[in-house]
Specification:
Elements lengths: L1 E6 L6 H12 L8 E10 L8 E9 L3 E8 L2 H17 L3
Parallel strand pairs: 1-2
Antiparallel strand pairs: 2-3, 3-4
Helix pairs in contact: 1-2
Length: 93
């Protein structure tokens, strides 16, 4: 599974990149037909405290699944997105 990271209007540090690749890499266990995972990090410029956005797109041989999460920190947003994707794939979401 190839993991593609895109950040909007900022450059992710190496620690954040490693965290993302490690966390999203856990999705490999969900199936062999996963081709690519795309992670897009962005910031909502609203006044809300939870303004770090993670969009996670999981591309398989047969379809594409997407989740979007908001949190105070990118790490939490990525963790929540991976958990949501795991639940979506398992059919519990």
């Amino acid at each position: 599974m190839k993991i593609v990271l895109q950040t909007v209007n900022f450059k992710a540090g190496s620690a954040l990149e490693k965290f993302i690749f490690d966390k999203v890499g856990q999705l490999r266990t969900l199936g062999t037909d996963i081709v690519r995972a795309e992670v897009v990090l962005n910031m909502d410029h609203a006044e809300a405290e939870e303004n770090k956005i993670c969009e996670l797109h999981l591309i398989t041989n047969s379809d594409t699944r997407k989740v979007k999460t908001l949190a105070k920190r990118y790490e939490k947003s990525v963790t929540d997105a991976v958990k949501s994707m795991q639940e979506l794939i398992a059919g519990t979401a």
